[in-house]
């Protein structure tokens, strides 16, 4: 069971986020959305699919967000052919109230080469994969998917807030009211 935490104990300034949005940052990712792949050097890496990141951003920010790749294709190609890795810088912007919150981060993907050559098999797909990685990293910089990407810092909580009269309101209470 998640511990109840007052929203004011978590957010020390006016953030523009409502209680349902804040709750998302303290709710574990559904187990069926956490995928796993072999890690370089052994072990396993947990991750979420890029399509799920898009779904969460759409739900959380009402489609009022954008993502762009800042690295040009030509520059990425030069580095990729020299190193075998595509690295791109991405920028995620989310609208909270009337303010754009901006996070920038890098994403990478090993280049798939045609067999026996140093010619990329499909550089466009490699770029897309690196861009998706950058988008996931930017979303994690907002604090999303912390249970996957920052396990040591994540804690699950039920976010509550006091309203006039000392009544405690939580997202669960709000959902119950909507259903009634």
Would you mind describing this structure in some detail?
The chain is 37% helix and 29% strand. It is of the alpha+beta class and 180 residues long. The chain has helices at 7-10, 19-25, 50-61, 73-83, 123-142, 146-149, 171-179; strands spanning 3-6, 34-38, 44-48, 65-69, 85-96, 99-110, 157-162, 168-170. The two termini are 24 Å apart. It has a three-stranded mixed sheet. Strands 4-5-6 form a three-stranded antiparallel sheet, sandwiched between helices. A two-stranded antiparallel sheet has the order 2-3. Mean pLDDT is 89; it is low at 174-180. The protein is built from seven helices and eight strands. A hairpin with a 5-residue loop joins strand 2 and strand 3 (44-48).
Protein structure class:
alpha+beta
Largest sheet, described in full? Answer: 3 strands, mixed
Distance linking N and C termini:
24 Å
Instruction: Tell me the Rg in angstroms.
Output: 20 Å
Strand percentage: 25-35%
Oligomer: single chain
Mean pLDDT value: 89
Task: Estimate the global geometry from the Cα principal axes.
Answer: elongated
The ordered H/E elements are EHHEEHEHEEHHEEH
Strand order of the largest sheet: 1-7-8
Q: List low-pLDDT spans.
A: 174-180
Helix run count: 7
How many runs of DSSP E, i.e. beta strands?
8
Helix percentage: 25-40%
In short:
With 180 residues, this protein is an alpha+beta fold. The chain has helices at residues 7-10, 19-25, 50-61, 73-83, 123-142, 146-149, 171-179, and strands at residues 3-6, 34-38, 44-48, 65-69, 85-96, 99-110, 157-162, 168-170. The longest helix is centred in the last third of the chain and has 20 residues, at 123-142.
């Amino acid at each position: 069971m998640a511990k109840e935490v007052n929203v004011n104990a978590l957010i020390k300034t006016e953030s523009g986020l409502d209680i349902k949005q804040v709750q998302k940052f303290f709710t574990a990712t559904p187990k069926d959305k956490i995928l796993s792949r072999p890690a370089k050097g052994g072990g396993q890496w947990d991750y979420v699919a890029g399509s799920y990141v898009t779904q969460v951003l759409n739900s959380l920010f009402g489609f009022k967000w954008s993502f762009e790749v800042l690295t040009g294709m030509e520059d990425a190609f030069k580095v990729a052919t020299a190193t075998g890795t595509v690295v791109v810088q991405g920028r995620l912007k989310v609208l909270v109230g009337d303010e754009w919150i901006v996070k920038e981060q890098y994403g990478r993907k090993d280049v798939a080469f045609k067999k026996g050559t140093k010619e990329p098999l499909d550089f466009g797909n490699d770029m897309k994969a690196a861009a998706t990685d950058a988008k996931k990293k930017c979303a994690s910089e907002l604090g999303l998917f912390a249970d996957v990407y920052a396990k040591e810092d994540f804690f699950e909580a039920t976010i509550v807030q006091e309203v006039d009269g000392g009544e405690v309101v939580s997202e669960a209470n709000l959902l119950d009211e909507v259903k009634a």
